[in-house]
Specification:
Strand content: 35-45%
Number of strands: 10
Shape: globular
Largest sheet: 10 strands, mixed
Distance between the termini: 81 Å
Structural class: alpha+beta
Order of helices and strands: HEEEEEEEEEE
Helix content: 10-25%
C-alpha cells in the first residue's frame, strides 16, 4: 500500500469519526440545547360523594412533575359532567382560577382546604364506587385522562 493511500484512508476514517460523533450529539440533544420538559403523572385522585344526589362535588388529586420544566394545569373536563372548574381556597375565600402551576421537580396538590376542582352538571348522579373520567389539559400540550373513584363524603386519604 502506498503512503498516499494510507494517508487518505486515515483522513477518511477521521472524518467519518467526527461525523458519527456529531450525529450522536444531535440525536442525544434532540430537544435542543438546554431544553427541558415537564413529565407529568397524576396520583391520589378521588371525589367525595356529593351531599345531595347529583349535586356539586369537589375533586382532589396530585399532579407530579418529574421533569425539569414547570407547566400549568389550564383546563379540566369530563364526559360525565357539564362543568369542571379549578378553584383556589384560603381560610376565608374560594376563587375560581384559570390555571394552576405545576413546578418543575414538584407537585400540584388539589386537596381539601386548598386548590381543588368543582364538578357540576352530572350526566348521571354519582354513587359510591363509580369512577369519573377527568381530562386534565396542560399549557405545554399534554392531556392526561384519569379515572377518579367516588369515595364516601367523609373520606380522607391515608385514613
Amino acid at each position: 500500500m502506498s503512503s498516499q493511500f494510507r494517508r487518505s484512508a486515515l483522513i477518511g476514517a477521521g472524518v467519518a469519526t467526527v461525523l458519527t460523533a456529531g450525529t450522536i450529539l444531535v440525536a442525544c440533544g434532540s430537544g435542543g440545547a438546554g431544553v427541558q420538559k415537564s413529565v407529568l403523572t397524576v396520583a391520589d385522585s378521588y371525589i367525595p360523594l356529593p351531599a345531595t344526589p347529583g349535586g356539586m362535588a369537589a375533586g382532589y388529586l396530585t399532579v407530579k412533575n418529574t421533569g425539569g420544566a414547570a407547566d400549568q394545569l389550564v383546563k379540566v373536563s369530563s364526559p360525565a359532567a357539564t362543568s369542571v372548574t379549578m378553584h383556589r381556597s384560603t381560610d376565608s375565600t374560594m376563587q375560581e382560577v384559570d390555571s394552576l402551576d405545576v413546578p418543575a421537580h414538584g407537585t400540584l396538590a388539589l386537596d381539601r382546604g386548598g386548590n381543588h376542582l368543582m364538578i357540576m352538571g352530572w350526566e348521571k348522579a354519582p354513587a359510591l364506587g363509580d369512577r369519573l373520567e377527568l381530562d386534565l389539559t396542560f399549557a405545554k400540550g399534554n392531556t392526561i385522562s384519569v379515572q377518579v373513584p367516588v369515595k364516601p363524603l367523609t373520606y380522607r386519604p391515608g385514613s
